[in-house]
Design brief:
With about 210 residues, this protein is an alpha+beta fold. The chain is built from 4 helices and 5 strands; from the N terminus they run αααβββαββ. Helix content is about 45%, strand content about 20%. Helix 1 runs antiparallel to helix 2 and helix 2 packs antiparallel against helix 3. It binds zinc ion (ZN). The site of zinc ion (ZN) has 9 residues, from loops.
Length: about 210
């Protein structure tokens, strides 16, 4: 009945010497059930972590938001794929130790990303930097989560444009061609994030507006 190599418990990876695992006292069928329950629980944790990441990214929008969302999207589908892979392995009773540890590590990634964004913003006490630039394009879409960007000329060397995540009111306030000031927090972990976008004042500065005076 043994295939190549020793048979291992699906649940705790102990080598099976009889019908019941010496490591966790489960039969093969029970271990399979336990593993599949764990997969469901961890998939739930993974989905919650992904939501936490989205919430953190909207609360403290990183300047490189689009890249981070793409990365998180890839992780999301890899995680779901691994969940299915572990579950199928547990059903068939194959060797799944490697799959399980891969899945467990991927479950943590959205939580780590979310935590990184929160720490980067919450512990960031460096002064906000203002960058005067010009809006060259706007786009908004509401697929899964609302996405509004002002595309502005970049102030960073090696970057041509910045896709600045903005609120609904900022999005409607500014138009293509308009000069704006993008307020940027440097971020504790070196992840710049957007404090807001305001209208640019006259380049001469100190021009007081006494309307009707
Ligand atoms: Zn076991």
């Amino acid at each position: 009945m043994f295939r190549s190599g020793a048979k291992r418990c699906l649940n705790c990876d102990t080598v099976m010497t009889g019908p019941v695992c010496e490591g966790c006292d489960l039969t093969e069928a029970a271990a399979s059930l336990v593993v599949r329950r764990k997969v469901i629980l961890r998939t739930g944790m993974f989905l919650l972590g992904s939501l936490a990441f989205i919430a953190a990214a909207y609360r403290f929008p990183p300047l490189a938001m689009d890249k981070m969302l793409v990365f998180a999207g890839v992780i999301f589908f890899v995680g779901l794929g691994l969940a299915v892979w572990v579950e199928r392995g547990a059903l068939r009773g194959g060797q799944i130790a490697v799959r399980k540890s891969l899945f467990t590590s991927v479950v943590l990634i959205p939580w780590l990303l979310a935590g990184m964004l929160v720490v980067n913003a919450k512990l960031d006490d460096a002064p906000i930097r203002d960058w005067t630039t010009r809006v060259v394009e706007k786009f908004s879409m509401s697929a899964i989560v609302p996405t509004r960007r002002l595309v502005v000329l970049s102030w960073r060397p090696g970057h041509e444009y910045e896709h600045v995540p903005v609120s609904e009111s900022e999005y409607s306030r500014f138009h293509v061609g308009e000069r704006v000031v993008v307020e940027i927090h440097p971020g504790l972990a070196g992840i710049p994030w957007v404090a807001g976008v305001v209208a640019a004042v006259n380049p001469g500065g100190a021009v007081k507006d006494h309307s009707g005076g």
